[in-house]
Amino acid sequence: ATGEFAELARDINQLADNLQTLSQSLDLQVQEQTAQIAQKTRSLQILYGMAACINGSRDLNDLLNRFLPELMELVSGRAAVVRLLRPNGYMEVVASMGLDPRVLRREHFMPDDCGLCGEVLRLGATDCQKGLDPCMNVLGMRLFGNEALEMVAVPLIHRGRTLGLYNLFLEQTDAPMRPEMKELLSSIGQHLGTAIEKTRLEEQTRELSVMQERNRIANELHDSLAQTLASLRFQVRVLDQTVQQSGDFQTIQELEQVENSLDEAYSDLRDLIAHCRAPLDNPGLVPGIEKLISRFRKESGISVYLQNEWRNARLPSNLEIQVARIVQEALTNIRKHAKAHNVRVLLRRDDGGNHQLLVEDDGIGFDSPVTEGGKPGEHLGLVIMRERAGHIGGELRIESEPSEGTRIELSFRYSSDPVIPPVVSQAAS
User: Fold this and answer.
1) Which residue in 173, 131, 124 sits closest to 150, CA to CA?
2) Which domains does the chain have, with CATH numbers?
3) CA distances (Å), 370 to each of 132, 255, 336, 391, in order?
4) Bigger pLDDT: 26 or 158?
């Protein structure tokens, strides 16, 4: 009996040990499940916040300015860059935060097969690179001094199509990136890719609306004012032939002046109609200005020197249109009034996003400043240029003296970089 009680006691103790082990295992599983649920909840909150940030943006520049600070705070990053693929086999930096301007100039355009970024674009999957030596070898300079950092590359994907990627520069760790963090960053990349495509489609819709409105205005001008001017030209010519027989030379001279003015007005109107009906192609601002200059050379025979320091900068389409129209109006004024032999067009910008456009000629100039209180129609083209500059928040300065030529300078600011300072702290990858 004593042996049976001893065996029963051992079984009870074993059962108690098993129950304790099971209880500890259950507690551990509950803790793990709780941690996973908390992580999932945190990820959903982050994605919701990112989605709200993205959906509340007005355009691509505003979208990226909202997105990068949120992303940097999420991962406690040292720097971040967003790159979009271009048709010429390159990827272009469209937004950045925390990078030295000298580095940005070096890598503004990079081949789309370059290093880790090229691999991520090809495979469409998030990846991480320990250390920045490969990037330093390509650029020929250090990105962050002697800091030990790692780079994460995340593709921007919309409906299976890779639009670009974003890079995060984080403090280097020995451990690989956690799967849940990689999954979260990839989800953010898909959200951002969808938002970028959405802004592109909205931009195309706006451009189509502008084109339709321009065609409507062109048709109205053709059906009304152009027909009226054509009729007036015909009537004046008939009247001129009648007066020629009377021998009234003063009247004949005045009629010729009226006839010349009508011819010039009719020609200007035809140019305006053709301009309104011109397709809104999208080669970029600099190629558009080069096209305007090439046409100006052919029409006027005037020598033009273009000094381009903007490289292939891309601006929002409404801003590009206003700048291109200012250049067009300046060249038109030179062709009609300046009697110039040489023209210089200068495009300059600095690292702070301050842009300068200068159009100057060696023509006859003029002696009266352009003011809002001038006579109706006087220097109308210059007044319109001032209005266009105001539409983009810029400033237009006009300097001219008789026999000293004319200098038109447009200054405006546009930067794709957020103005919020970068967050520098312990990486959380």
Assistant:
1) 131
2) 12-202 (3.30.450.40), 282-423 (3.30.565.10)
3) 55, 30, 17, 18
4) 158
